[in-house]
Design brief:
With 285 residues, the protein is of the alpha/beta class. Helices cover 48% and strands 19% of the residues. Strands 3-4-5-6-7 form a five-stranded mixed β-sheet. Strands 1-2 form a two-stranded parallel sheet. A hairpin with a 6-residue loop joins β6 (212-220) and β7. The longest helix is centred in the last third of the chain and has 22 residues, at 234-255. The N and C termini lie far apart (76 Å). The mean pLDDT is 92.
Length: 285
């Protein structure tokens, strides 16, 4: 293990992913839900209390893809394939024989492997994923205006590497049906990817004192598994930081309210989209 890896690993706050998930500090997946409503935030927080929440095939494939791209050795050792339907004595015996390993279907394993191969085939992406640390878990505290006690935060970073200038490069892997700039840019804005990267960068900067530049490594989820890198410039990151501060403020506000409001508060009137309102002129004619 080289000194770069040792330094980054020294920041790791949890020994295992299970320990990370068991920690109830505020992470981005939970924080972003308050943009929808406090009701959705608190519902998700209660669901999180169940440590072994049901895993969907999409979540399983997503975790497998991350492992195949970022930790190919761990993917080879910790994941295995069951080639038949998940039922019956054969399935039960296979699970027992592979206790502690992640089990994929043939299709899932093929897709995760194909996406990883596509990424590694791009020299600039392969270089980006060299000499770094995958799945780095962080914990830190932040002072939030209007709240006496610091908020306890956590984050699990896909990939971090120390750069030649002494700063840090933070990479998050995203899969999408289309990674074209217009389509993916819309998806990134809608899902607040820039806020997510601002959250990760905030923790990393606080713990290290180093400047952080951020990037999204994107790969299409269907053949031919097109892939590439989107760097977030200062405008995108400033927007992400402001959105994050807004969500933290909403979280603090919700802590001092009775109950949890949903998306409709008080009396509201339905707003029809412009394309439907345009029919008024046609129908009048």
């Amino acid at each position: 293990m080289n000194t770069t890896t040792e330094y980054l690993r020294s920041l790791d706050a949890f020994a295992t992913e299970r320990e990370y998930r068991a920690c109830r500090d505020l992470n981005w997946s939970l924080l972003k839900l308050i943009a929808k409503s406090p009701l959705h935030f608190y519902h998700a927080a209660q669901q999180r209390e169940r440590e072994d929440a049901a895993e969907t095939p999409a979540l399983r494939l997503g975790r497998a893809t991350h492992a195949a791209i970022l930790e190919p050795d761990r993917f080879a050792s910790d994941w295995t394939v069951f080639h038949s339907a998940r039922r019956g004595k054969v399935w039960q015996a296979f699970k027992e024989e592979n206790e502690g390993r992640e089990i994929l279907s043939s299709a899932e394993h093929h897709k995760a492997s194909a996406m990883a191969e596509a990424v590694r085939a791009r020299p600039e992406l392969a270089a980006l994923l060299s000499d770094g640390v995958a799945e780095l878990s962080l914990r830190w505290e932040e002072i939030a205006p209007g709240h006496d006690e610091p908020l306890r935060m956590k984050a699990r970073l896909d990939w971090v590497k120390l750069e030649a200038d002494g700063g840090l490069c933070l990479v998050d892997v995203k899969t999408a049906r289309d990674i074209g700039d217009r389509v993916f840019g819309t998806q990134a804005a809608r899902l607040l990817y820039h806020g997510q990267m601002a959250h990760y960068a905030a923790g990393l900067s606080k713990l290290t004192g180093l400047p952080v530049r951020t990037a999204l490594l994107v790969v299409e989820s269907e053949a031919p598994f097109d892939c590439g890198i989107y760097w977030l410039d200062e405008i995108a990151m400033e927007c992400g930081r402001k959105r994050r501060r807004e969500l933290i403020a909403k979280r603090v506000e919700s802590m001092y309210q009775d109950g949890a409001d949903g998306q409709i508060v008080g009396t509201q009137y339905l707003s029809l989209p412009d394309w439907e309102l345009a029919t008024l002129d046609r129908l009048e004619d």
